Amino acid sequence: MSQSTAPESGEVKANEKAAATAGSAKNASVPHNAMKARVSVKHPNLTMLGLYLGAFLGMLSETAMNIALPDLMKSFNIGSGTAQWMVVGYMLVIGIVLPFTSLMLKWIPSRPLLLFALAMFFIGSLISGFAPGNSFAILLLGRMIQGVSTGLVLPMMFSVILEVFPLNKIGAAMGMAGLVVMFAPAIGPTLAGALIGAFSWRAIFFFFAVIALLALVAASIWMVNAYTLTKPTIDPFSCIASILGFGGFVLGVSLISDFGFSLPVLGIMVVGIAAIVCYSYRQLHMGNPIIDLRAMGIRQFTVGALIVMMNFGITLATMYLMPQELQNGLGVKVALTGLVMLPGGVVNALVSMFAGRLFDIVGPNWLVRGGLVLSMIGVILLMLANPSTSIAYIICAHVILMVGVPMTMSPAQSSALASLPQHLSTDGSTILNTMQQVLGAVITAVTTILLQAGQASSHADGKEMAFVTGSRWGFTFALVLAIVAFLVSFGLSKRTTAEDVPHRS
Q1: What is the C-alpha to C-alpha distance for residues 54 and 149, in angstroms, rounded to an integer?
Q2: Helix, strand, coil % (nearest 5) of the chain?
Q3: Most buried residue, 149, 238, 311, 359, by most Cβ within 10 Å?
């Protein structure tokens, strides 16, 4: 695939010979094609700003909405099952849109596609923020429109990084992306609680609209078109299978916690799984697939992707359990819960950034394994908590966990994506993000089931201890994920450096 151009900015490299001789004597040991980006821009971080803000919004809204659900139930006079559609509907739309992002980037220039995505989040936020108090359907409509934006922005952010940053700086860039993605959920509960306390649940959506507007301005000024448009043939069967498969599976798994393994839920899941199997088979036997699954045939990508999935699962399971255990097991008030989790969130963001920079220097192996060991220690400490455990102990355990998770995430993700040739970079990013959303629904459902089962097994010990026991079952699941990821990490190659460069062009 040839290098793309960015006609709006006029900043794409035009002289290959000049680029090939640009290295200094200090960097003579680094191959020239590792020191130049596929698409040359003066300020890559400014180019990425709109994407960073859009991804921050998408991840922030996932956790912020959990805090707002009780207020929404009161305002709209609805039950918890109906209110959960603010979470399920959002995840459902993301699961449907995400697999098409790679295809869209081959048909639509990345700059207008990003502007469209950010405009959708802005419009969706306003629709939800101004929703009449007697119309939950309008509120939900705005929320699902936001999901369209998140489904496009997340894979775009990681794939565009591979285009506007040189190979020898991809780790640092992925670290910045990790900071954005990991910091948003960390501050979500605290920020949402503060906005609801000072104003109302509507303030959350208006805050989203302001950030989306800033992202639109940044993208309109600095974003470039990062890809050559190949406009492959669109296969209608693959499109239908993708919607039924990913949408059906995410929907089915998301409904388990509310309706159990009922016949309708199992039916939805079976249809989803069958459609995903058909979709995958077709993609592997097409000349122009919607997602080129041949990326999974590259060992470094597959190993890195598996570690990312397990690590993401650890994050989801523990972040789902901790706020509930703090309130229901340890008796911490809602307003204080967000503050208890804030130190770990700040540490998470900082480590994300530095882990990416360290990846550029030492490669992924020791960072990934060291991070997973720290994650295991943090999870074990959380498992040992009981109703009389001090807040300081919980904060300490959370901080250790929040060092380990980003220490693993950024290097594993960087290693996976940097191993791909250019024609598979957008597909690789889409695969990673689609798997994360699908896995997210599975992890949440499994954790909820374990939490409920653990509570039932310890009901005679009192309400607080029963909830702590249920949380321990869920934390055990997170520990198993960490152990599996640690074993898989031995399949990583030592580093992604000069040896891999020829395979990327």
Answers
A1: 8
A2: 80, 0, 20
A3: 149
CA 201, 202, 204, 205 torsion-angle sign:
positive
CB neighbourhood size of 486 (10 A): 19
Percentage of the chain exceeding pLDDT 90: 28
* Per-residue model confidence as pLDDT tens digits over 174-218: 777 777 776 777 677 778 878 887 888 899 999 999 999 999 999
Q: Helices 334-362 and 391-418, interaxial angle, to 10°?
A: 40
Q: How far is CA 163 from CA 18, 48, 185, 234, in A?
A: 19, 11, 27, 24
| Cβ atoms of residues 418 and 360 within 8 Å | no
Q: Is the pLDDT of residue 480 over 90?
A: yes
State how far the Cα of 178 lies from the Cα of 356, in Å rounded to an integer. 8
Number of residues assigned to the chain: 505
Q: Within 13 A of 282's CA, how many CA atoms are on the CB side?
A: 19
Least confident of 33-37, 144-148, 195-199, 258-262: 33-37
pLDDT of residue 24: 40
| Contact of 488 with 307, CB cutoff 8 Å | yes
Please name the helix (run of DSSP H) or strand (run of DSSP E) that holds residue 154, with its range, or none. Answer: helix 136-164
Q: Name, in order, each residue with C-beta under 8 angstroms of 452's C-beta and a sequence gap of 6 or more.
A: 470
Question: How high is the pLDDT of residue 489?
Answer: 92
Of the chain, the end-to-end C-alpha distance in Å amounts to: 8
The arithmetic mean of pLDDT across residues 231-259, rounded, is 84
The DSSP line for 391-431 is HHHHHHHHHHHHHHHHHHHHHHHHHHHHTS-GGGHHHHHHH
CA distances from 480 to 1, 12, 59, 360, 487 (A): 41, 46, 25, 29, 11
Amino acid at 371: G
Lookup result for tokens 């597959």: 302
How far, in Å, are 31, 111, 369, 420 from residue 168 at the CA level?
Answer: 9, 25, 22, 14
| pLDDT the model gives residue 257 | 67
- Residue 367's identity, in one-letter code, is L
Identify the CA nearest to 311 among candidates 281, 340, 348, 274.
348
Whether the CB-CB separation of 137 and 76 falls below 8 Å is answered with no
Pick left, alpha or beta for residue 493 (phi over 0 → left; psi -120 to 50 → alpha; otherwise beta): beta
Query: DSSP E strands: which ranges in 123-169?
Result: none
pLDDT of residue 505: 38
Cα angle, residue 81 at apex, residues 76 and 84 outer, rounded to 5°: 80
Distance of CA 248 to the CA centre of its chain: 20
Element (H, E) at 210: helix 202-222
Closest alpha carbon to 62 in 321, 400, 319, 410: 319
